[in-house]
Specification:
The chain is α/β, with parallel strands linked by helices. The protein has 6 helices and 10 strands, in the order βββαβαβαβββαββαα. Helix content is 32%, strand content 29%.
């Protein structure tokens, strides 16, 4: 069985997959309460299905980009489970999860608002080729990249994300089964080596950089 965890936004996306079948999942928005409810909700998910943590053989966790606090929550939970259960852990980006979850056969543009005129985005071709690697980019520069494309679909879970002249847009709802199936064989990491992938400096790091 594989445990999937994503707390990189205001949502808790988690689930358990066994032999390429989705056993259970949670896809719910908690906002600022996410830090308090994430672990209890995951524990309840185990209890409600009769599955124990010892049944888990691997963990896949989203390590960013997105909410700084949210990312740390998910990684901490995943690392504790992986270390205590002595099971392998692997990481993927939120943008990879978003691109995997859409069923369209067009060019995919997963996007997360980063405020102040910036976003986190990537561009994947119809055959999953990487036109733009996950990056922290201005809306202006991203629009310039999108203008080169004949067609594409933006995937986002930001309700008010309207700064880009979209051709098509799709509200993100993770397909946890497909995400796990795609990344279940990705190279494992040492739990202690799993770190957030913010794609940008934190505000404290930015301030320190400018001072220096």
């Amino acid at each position: 069985m594989i445990l999937y965890i994503d707390t990189s936004s205001n949502f808790l996306y988690t689930g358990i997959v066994d032999k390429d079948k989705l056993v259970t999942e949670i896809k719910k928005e908690y906002g600022h309460d996410l830090s308090q409810v994430a672990l209890p909700e995951i524990v309840s998910m185990f209890e409600n299905t009769g599955i124990t943590p010892k049944d888990i053989k691997k963990i896949i966790v989203v390590n960013g980009p997105g909410s700084f606090t949210g990312i740390r929550i998910g990684i901490t939970i995943a690392k504790v489970y992986a270390w205590s259960l002595k099971v392998p852990i692997t990481t993927i980006t939120a943008l990879e999860a978003m691109a995997t979850s859409t069923t369209n056969d067009e060019i995919k543009v997963p996007m997360i608002d980063a405020r102040r005129g910036y976003c986190y985005a990537a561009i994947y071709g119809k055959n999953e080729e990487e036109y733009l690697a996950p990056t922290y980019i201005t809306y202006e520069k991203l629009q310039s990249e999108l203008n080169k494309l004949d067609s594409y679909k933006v995937i986002t879970n930001d309700k008010d994300l309207i700064k880009v002249d979209y051709k098509k847009i799709e509200a993100y709802s993770p397909n946890i089964l497909e995400i796990v199936k795609k990344y279940k064989d990705k190279k494992d990491c040492n739990p202690h080596a799993v770190n957030p992938n913010y794609l940008k400096l934190t505000e404290a790091e930015e301030s320190k950089k400018h001072v220096a």
